[in-house]
Amino acid sequence: MNVFDILGPVMIGPSSSHTAGAARLGRVTRALLGTEPVQAEIRLHGSFAKTYKGHGTDRALVAGILGMETDDPGLRNALETARERGLEVTFKTVELDGAHPNTAWILLTDAAGDQVSLIGSSIGGGNILVTKLNGMDVYFTGEKETLIVRHQDVPGIIASVTEVAALAGANISNFRLSRKEKGGEAVMTIELDGSFGPDLALAVRHLPHIYSSILLMPVS
Questions:
Q1: To 10 degrees, what angle do helices 21-33 and 57-65 make?
Q2: Element at 27 (helix H, strand E)
Q3: Strand locations in 53-200, DSSP E?
Q4: How close are the terminal C-alpha atoms of the chain, in Å?
Q5: How high is the pLDDT of residue 17?
Q6: Nearest CA-CA partner of 130 in 24, 5, 16, 9
Q7: Gap between the Cα atoms of 118 and 96, Å rounded
Q8: 48 Cβ partners below 8 Å, 6+ apart?
Q9: CB atoms within 10 A of CB 152
Q10: Under 8 Å CB-to-CB from 200, ≥6 apart: which residues?
Q11: Contact call for residues 214 and 161 (beta carbons, < 8 A)
Q12: Which of 18, 20, 22, 54 has most Cβ atoms within 10 angstroms of its Cβ?
């Protein structure tokens, strides 16, 4: 445990779990879409489903989807801002077997019809745990800088991405690959030792067969 587990992140809202973590889930989903969303379907489980209006979880999730940080004062008016920007948002409550009490399923769609879906939980102190991306099993918390790459499953793609990371001086502490089917969509989650800027994700994004690439920063 560190000081950020005790104090929590700099944020707007009453709860690091229900607001800061929720905003991060929304922001990660937006980044993985890689474009401006026009529709957001959000399904809430457990405690999120019971208290999302009172604790501002709905506003926090939408704020993240709009690209806001956890400490952005605009978080309070995120639902109104979404309507002004033409983002259609719907909320539903669901029961997800075995899920953490603070879990959200987020489906974003852009103007071209491209979509990304994510299931993730807010596990305290603004920390998150993402367990599914586009129906594929993943596992990342964001406790370390994490490179998340959506790509086509083709020969040599892992070598290409890890070579870019090595050239940037990154040491990989954990690597996971999930895919729907051979030759289809896949996702790499690569946890890194050290600190790297957005140029690393940008360099990976320029590789062939890459759909999106983001560098998720730790809460602290």
A1: 30
A2: helix 21-33
A3: 88-94, 102-110, 115-124, 127-133, 136-140, 146-152, 171-179, 185-193
A4: 12
A5: 56
A6: 24
A7: 13
A8: 18, 22, 57, 101, 102, 103, 104, 122
A9: 14
A10: 147, 164, 165, 168, 170, 215
A11: no
A12: 22
Phi–psi pair at 35, nearest 5 degrees: -140, 180
Taking the C-alpha atoms of residue 118 and residue 137, their distance in angstroms, rounded to an integer, is: 10
Burial class (CB in 10 A: 0-12, 13-18, 19+), 45: buried
Enumerate the β-bridge partners of residue 93.
44
Please give the single-letter amino acid code of residue 88: E
Q: Positive or negative CA dihedral for 55, 17, 191, 181?
A: negative
Dihedral (CA of 43, 47, 135, 195) sign = positive
Q: Which two tokens stand for residue 46?
A: 């457990």
Residue among 161, 159, 164 nearest 150 (CA): 161
Query: What is the reported pTM?
Result: 0.81
- Tell me if 219 sits within 8 A of 125, measured CB to CB: yes
